Amino acid sequence: MATDPKIIIYTDGACRGNPGPGGWGVVLESGQHYKELYGAELNTTNNRMELTAAIKALQSLKQPGHKVELYTDSVYVKNGITQWLIGWKSNGWKTASKKPVKNAELWQQLDETNQQHEVKWHWVKGHSGEKGNEKADQLANQAIDELITENC
Predict the structure, then answer these.
(1) How many domains does the chain have?
(2) Beta-bridge partners for 7
(3) CATH number at residue 78
């Protein structure tokens, strides 16, 4: 395991329409270090952006083995990675009702990046004043605004 200080990550996704233009935002904090990441897609869903934010956050860590506290306001992401994923994998990426898992390719990417670190997953209520979550939300919406401006 890396001996670096614990990394605190806040992630959020946003979508204007569902589907529609969407964005993701990430805030990373570790000791004196602070970093923001964001991006957008023209035609996506909120769930895809929530997943993408978590994937991009973990992929941004340059070496494996970090201790991470990851905060998301998405119950879908939190429950998916901590509860449902094991069953989906053992069922060949099918749900308990034998239907294909939605966004399976993103779940597979998240699973892969999650396994490279020691991640504790936390759910936070969105738009509740949690500073890191509010900033991640602002970044996700900024990404959408920039995408829309670029494509007008």
Answers:
(1) 1
(2) 68
(3) 3.30.420.10
Q: Where are the alpha helices (DSSP H) in the chain?
A: 46-59, 75-79, 85-90, 104-114, 131-150
Assess if residue 2 is contained within a domain.
no
pTM: predicted TM-score of the whole model, two decimal places: 0.95
Enter the tokens of residue 134. 């509010």
**Residue 98, token pair as written in the block:** 């034998």
Whether 137 maps to a domain, the answer reads yes
Q: State the catalytic residues.
A: 12-13, 50, 73, 127, 137
Provide the residue range defining the domain that includes 24: 7-150
- The predicted-structure confidence for 112-137, as pLDDT tens digits, reads as follows 999 999 999 999 998 888 899 999 99
Q: Specify the 3-state DSSP secondary structure of 12.
A: strand
- What is the enclosing helix (H) or strand (E) of 14? strand 7-15
